[in-house]
Design goal:
alpha/beta, 124 residues, Rossmann fold, globular, single chain, 36% helix
């Protein structure tokens, strides 16, 4: 199952990570780290998230992630999946509310693998 394959990958980028503990981008980032994942915060607005370096984009990460967790709008997501494809990243995890028909068509066109589910629930 694709979801299990992705959860088995240990290097993740959380696109839309943020400093607000009440927002999903923060909760997801913290939970992945707590579960032993090597997670990187990606958000051009912040220099740090939870005391860790926050990177402006996927290309600026010190290591290419296995999975990109999307916590941004579908419109912003289009740029991210194109960057992911260019970097050779195959797996995209789409949180609820982060995808629409246009984004899903582009994921298919690029040949990426995507899961539409809440990673907070999947990593209980």
């Amino acid at each position: 199952m694709l979801e299990e394959t992705m959860l088995g990958k240990k290097v993740w980028a959380v696109v839309g990570a943020n400093r607000n503990p009440g927002k999903y981008g923060n909760m997801i980032y913290k939970k992945l780290r707590a579960r032993g994942y090597e997670a990187y915060a990606v958000n051009p607005i912040y220099d740090t998230v939870e005391g860790d370096v926050c990177y402006p984009g996927l290309s600026s990460l010190p290591k290419t992630p296995d999975v990109v967790n999307m916590v941004v709008s579908p419109k912003k997501g289009l740029e991210i999946i194109k960057e992911a494809k260019a970097l050779g990243i195959e797996y995209i995890w789409l949180q609820p509310g982060t995808y629409d028909d246009e984004l899903m068509k582009e994921i298919d066109r690029l040949g990426l693998s995507a899961v539409q589910a809440c990673v907070l629930v999947a990593t209980r």
